[in-house]
Structure formats: structure tokens, C-alpha cells
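Mods, move this if it's the wrong board.
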Amino acid sequence: MDKPCLSNKDEYPDDEVLSRHLGEVKCTWDSFLAFLTEDHPSFSTEWRYYNDGKSWLCKVTHKKKTVC
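Not the wrong board. C-alpha cells:
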């Protein structure tokens, strides 16, 4: 079984880290984020490390409501 990505608490998932893990599909991730910011400017994204899952996750919110 593969080791989960983005599991190092001390390594914030910036563009370099995401490129290393996503490889050639990083452009799809970038397109998704561009869609969110252009079509839904009130949405915000935030990377959070969750101790229970031992992984970084990107949280998208609208005001205080989690979207995805």
C-alpha cells in the first residue's frame, strides 16, 4: 500500500509540494482553484493539518459554511 501524500505536518502544501505529489495533473488542480476564485469570489480556501487523519486537507468555505 502506498504511503499517504501530504502527511508531513511540518511541510505546508505549497505549489512546490503539490507539484511534486500531483505531477502532470497539477494543472487540473490549478484550473479547479481558478474556477473557484473566478466564479465564486466569496469562497475561500485554507490548508489545514488534521491530527486525526495525519494529513493536510484543503478546506473550501463560504462564510462559515464548509463547501468542500
